[in-house]
Structure prediction request, 113 residues.
Amino acid sequence: EVQLQAFGGGLVQPGGSLRLSCVGSGFTFSEYDMTWVRQAPGKKHEWVSTINNRRNPTTAYADSVKGRFTISRDNDRNTLYLQMNSLKPEDTAMYYCANTLARGQGTLVTVSS
Prediction:
């Protein structure tokens, strides 16, 4: 069974940082591009970032997070990361990791003073 479990969310003040993690199981993690998406309250899902499955992976970011968020992966640990810096209230959302096989359970990020 393919599983993706995200964790690391929480409450942070504007300007703060968080690092999200997502552990995958039930598939060969290194063979898949991996993506973070988010859904803010009352809004549609928004693509955040993708990292591909190449030996030297390339990354892509939504304009809304470019320069503040960094996606990375550790294939030995079957883990995807999202380092989020300079957080803004509009980053408040449920964050999910996903690939072409599944979307995992999310982790809630709340940016508020």
